[in-house]
Amino acid sequence: MTTAETNAQLAFRDWYASTKPKALRPDPSPEERQRPFAKYYFEDIPPPDPAHYAMMDKPCDPSKAIGPERMNDLLKPGDLDVEIGWCNLPNGAGFIANRMVYPEVTAEMVDWWFAWHPLEDLRYRIWYPPQHAGIMLSPEGRKRILDPKVPLQEKNWGVVHHVTEDCNCGMENIDIHFMSPKDFGFDMSRWKEPYVSTFAGGYGWAVAVEKTDASITAPALMCHIFRPHAKGLEHRTRFWMGYRFSQGKPELTLPPGVSVPVAAVQGLARHNVCEFTRWGRFLPRIYKELGHGMLC
What we know:
Alpha-D-Glucose-1,6-Bisphosphate, Chain A, domain 4, globular, alpha+beta
């Protein structure tokens, strides 16, 4: 990477001021077009499988969903009652589940991607150009990710990704605080194959780019857990919207009688299907070209 590319996104104030124009999703700059992966931005992106996408049309049965206090159920063999769906839980929180199977993706590719893509805007934008607008790391976060002594799987632990994206409710600035699986709350005595291969998750907070006094914001817990599958690698997503971590435990932040808006829950569920359908299709190609542990 050039000096300009290495220093990109380091000033938070400058990044924050840039999010409004980025939210308009302008074409890559002439300098960005010279990046070896710019071609992925201009690819046609086929839609997700219609039957899969249609499973997000209506809410699932809340009695079959799980709250974050049951996250360790994801380490059990087999499937849970809801692997694809969304709803509001009885306490008002938003619940999202999604399941993808990738024939050509490996756990190493997953770990590489989550360390590689936050290092510059265009890397995030090529993931899902219709809705991904930009990303930033702090100097400390960038230093950790680029530290050769930190294992690839651990590079994001404690790092915040400041992303600008649209989850079907308008462009938002989202702070995603990545965590280790232990800090997230998983039972590490069960953290092994074939129950789990790798993980990317933490907690986030979203604020509309065009924030007003009427804008609704709420924290969310994000969990992407991967395990072996007969057809490749299985990716199981869970979001719990309206939750944060307090003293290491999931805590509901919603006032009594308040629910996360249905449009926000369903919007994120649909976004998840689209962005990870795209991801599963292009990750093996870009990893073959640029990966194998290399981040710059």
